[in-house]
Amino acid sequence: MTSNKSYGYWSILFSVAGSLLLVASYLISPNEPQGMIVIGLQIMLLSAIVLLGLGVVTSILAIRKKEEGIKKYIGILLPVIIILFAVLVPILMGIGFMLNDNP
């Protein structure tokens, strides 16, 4: 059943699932996590990272096999967007605070 699916399909599936788990781990985390919720959040975060990594790997395999369509690029695009968002938001906020510093 899974052998007839293309690498592009698996790339999208892994990347979207990893992105959803990453967002879900931030949405459900309380301000001060205690006990088993910490372990649950760590498992969710680790599985999100693994799924995003699998999405990148299957995307690279799809590109090497020269599959048709744009599905093969989604596995690389989603982690790059997440990384850019995590890096650029604090930088842009800092620039905004510097520009609005009216003495």
From TrEMBL:
Transmembrane segments: 7-29, 35-63, 75-99
Record key words, sorted: Membrane, Transmembrane, Transmembrane helix
Keyword Transmembrane recorded: yes
Record's protein name: Uncharacterized protein
